[in-house]
Amino acid sequence: MNKILFYVFATILYLTLSKALAPDNISLEYIKTSKDLKKFIKLSPATAILEKTMKKGYLIKTYYQRYKIVYAYRPPKLIIVRTKRTLAEKTSKYIGMSLFRIDEDNKISTVPMPPGYLFIGNKKYGRWLYKDKIAYWKFYQSYKKLPQYFGWGSFTPDKKFLVEAKSYEKDNTPFLGLSNEFGHKGSVTNKFLPEDTKKSGFRRVKFRNLFRNYRKMNYN
Question: Which residue ranges make up each domain of the chain?
Answer without folding.
Answer: 2-218
